[in-house]
Amino acid sequence: MRSLLYNSLIYHSTTRFPSQFAKDSTGFPPLLNRNISRRITCRSMSCSSESPSPTLRTVTISYYELKDKDADVSLKIEEGFGPNGLGILSITDVPDFPSLRRKLLCLSARLAALPEDVKKELEDPQSRYNFGWSHGKEQLESGKPDLLKGSFYANPLLDVPTKDAFLIQRYASYCGANIWPQAALPELEVAFKALGKVIFDVGLLVAYHCDRYVSRGMKMQKDEGLEQTLLRSRCHKGRLLYYFPAQLSNHEENGDSMSSWCGWHTDHGSLTGLTCGLFKRNGVEVSCPDSAAGLYIRTRSGEIVKAIFGEDEIAYQIGETTEILSQGYLCATPHCVRAPKGKEASGVDRSTFALFMQPDWDEKLNFPKDVHIHKELIPPNGSLTFGEYSEMLLDKYYHKKT
Ligand SMILES: O=C(O)CCC(=O)C(=O)O
Ligand SMILES: [Fe+2]
């Protein structure tokens, strides 16, 4: 789940936990206190007039190491997701990933270019546009409708998560059925499911190692961990994003902002898998025309850095729900996307894919006593299902359902 919380969850830095997690009262010492600044490099940004932003390479773990259940990758998990980490890590060498990424990302422009009436058929207002095509339904930081990008949402693992009409009505953004453009773009379903499955499978491996890391600091029942929670969930959601080329959208108004393409937010769920954006001009792949453009992250120390990872890598970020349930051992990452600027950026579009992995709507979340995010929503006994919790968040930030 992401989209509808998207702009409402632009908390800027408010979703970041105070730094007491770094010196937790359990006495759990951070495995690593290395300053992430050692990976920060300053680069001059070709098309920007502002002073250069620092650029930071993600921590990487090879798929082969990740797959080894006996390998101890805690240091890297901590460097990526821990209280002093950058908030993102990436996995290299995933078999088939590069071709699956390219196959899906190349379909996003074709989807966005379908006739309006065909795209309308792919919309799902009942789920607040959390299934199928969504364009202009979310808001920019300015409060205006977001026409800069179009999104296509689907659960890549389950076409029909439930047939229970009550549940579909109650948790429409999770329990609805996928809407595929079967006649207009039949390749989309195949490519979306294939890429989503790989990012999910690798995400489970990341989750396994996250659980090992967290269990060093806090007591955790075996079935309470991130890996098992994700494994039994029916709510995972993929989002294929298409950022329209500059001349087709009004970039001027947002042009100077760091978050000109995608506003500051933290993802709401458990773990997000992310591909590196693919840029095209007139349908031909090009390199990013402005080195200042791309994914930005607000680090734990409040610094804003551009995060970079290779096109053959899958990046993972922690969502708010994991930050809460792991008691801050794993931290959610405020991030945004900056559009390219300058003459070279004209006509250049960007495609990418995110997989939001999250607990099942029925999953009981046992909130710790000391919750720093959305504290007011948690009942005194600290127990809510993920579905209930998400609905409360949607109601908090959006109009209540009538
Ligand atoms: O476009 C991107 O690279 C990031 C998108 C994102 O953060 C999201 O969809 O939540
Ligand atoms: Fe995000």
N-C termini distance: 21 Å
Mean pLDDT: 84
Query: Which ligands does the model contain, each kind named once?
Result: 2-oxoglutaric acid, fe (ii) ion
Unreliable stretches? 1-49
Q: Based on helices, strands and strand pairing, what is the structural class? A: alpha+beta
Summarize the helix and strand pattern as letters: HEEEHHEHHHEEHHHHEEEEEEEEHEEEEH
Share in helix: 10-25%
Number of strands: 18
Proportion of beta-strand residues: 15-25%
Radius of gyration: 20 Å
Shape: globular
Q: For the report, how would you describe the main beta sheet?
A: 10 strands, mixed
Alpha plus pi helix count: 12
Quick summary:
InterPro entries: IPNS-like_sf (IPR027443), Oxoglu/Fe-dep_dioxygenase_dom (IPR005123). The protein is α+β, with helices and mostly antiparallel strands.
